[in-house]
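ok so i was messing around last nite and threw this chain in just to see what happens. nothing serious, just curious
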Amino acid sequence: MREGLFIRKNLEKWKKYQYDGATDPDELAGEFTELVDDLGYAKTFYPHSRVTQYLNGLASRFYLGIYKNKKEESSRILRFWKTELPIVVRKYHREILYSFLIFVAFAMIAAFSAAHDESFVRGVLGDRYVEMTEENIAKGDPFGVYKSDNQVAMFLSIALNNVRVSFLIFVAGFIVSIGTLWLLFTNGVMLGAFQYYFFSKGLGWKSVLVIWVHGTLEISSIIIAGAAGLVLGNSILFPGTHNRLLSLKRGAKDGLKMMIGLVPIFVCAAFLEGFVTRYSTMPAWLSIFILITSLSFITWYFVIYPIRLQKKLNAASLS
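result:
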């Protein structure tokens, strides 16, 4: 990009930062991030230009402003969950939607394939798992697999596996999003085949009431991890006006924040699977309550709250 075009494209934004700078620490930090990105671009392509000197001075002022108003570390943690993470999530709502649609599409394709090919479920889930489940169905305990291990051991192993799978989906975004798409495909196909299998045995709604007690949080985490992987991959593929390396750093930072935000959800899903799902004969109302509570939390924290927060911050900046 020519220097003149770069200046014309960003001049109004810089003036706003210089003369009408934010006072809220979180908004100030967001503007500082944008300014550092512009400064990095200017240093790369116009190292001896006056615009680079101007941006360097403006960024220095922002830096002092941020650390002048720095809060205690405890409030920093609270601010991460209350403001920083939701703003990042809002920024990438499109990627979350894409990840959701891709995952659901693969799950539906798998269910359709299983309905037309009896061997499909065994090919996806494995003969051993299918035979074990059929034995449990014959015994009158179709979800006995969730009762096979000690609760604590099961909780720990599931939590570690959830973290491993989700972070693998995220890191796979380094392969220009292809790795993330492949893992969304494999997990979506497994879910579609798994769920169809129980419906084909006349246990569909029962499986929903039992398995989705933990599955709501678990599958939501996989979808959001997929979105984080797309953020990472797209930062490489589509750097925009920024240097590709700077774009990658920014995408990796935002994606990692999303993954950190998922850790408590991994743990909660593992707790439900290890300690609650095993009670497959629990009252239907209790299963429905847990399922709706989990879905409501995911919808509120990752969809509704980020939108409301952004609107609130935008209104505050205009007042």
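not much to say yet. The chain has two domains: 3-72, 89-318.
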